[in-house]
Amino acid sequence: MSDDPHAEAQEAVAARRYWTLQFVRLAGIFLTFIGAMMVVDRIDGGALGPVLFVAGPLLFFAVPVLLARKWKSGR
Predict the structure, then answer these.
(1) Which of left, alpha, beta for 44 (phi over 0: left; psi -120 to 50: alpha)?
(2) pLDDT per residue over 50-71, tens digit each?
(3) For the whole model, what pTM was predicted?
């Protein structure tokens, strides 16, 4: 690390954003898995299973791209 406090702050923001992206991807995998379990009736869920099964990959693939785009735009 450098002695520059501004650089350290930027590194902290980058690390926080990295871990946010990883958590979002992990949540997408988890939702997909739970949705699949509901679809094959391993756990109760009814109509929620297919919804989670579709929402999981969207969360895994689309949300990190949208977050990165938002962060790059500076909003």
Answers:
(1) beta
(2) 999 999 999 999 999 999 999 9
(3) 0.84
46 conformational bin, left if phi > 0, alpha if psi -120 to 50, beta if neither: left
pLDDT reading at 75 higher than 90: no
- Please answer whether residues 42 and 56 qualify as being in contact, where contact means their C-beta atoms are separated by less than 8 angstroms: no
> Which residues, other chains included, contact 46 with Cβ-Cβ below 8 Å and sequence gap of 6+?
38
Retrieve residue 35's tokens: 């949705």
Distance from chain centroid for Cα 28:
6
3-state secondary structure the chain: CCCCHHHHHHHHHHHHHHHHHHHHHHHHHHHHHHHHHHHCCCCCCCCHHHHHHHHHHHHHHHHHHHHHHHHHHCC
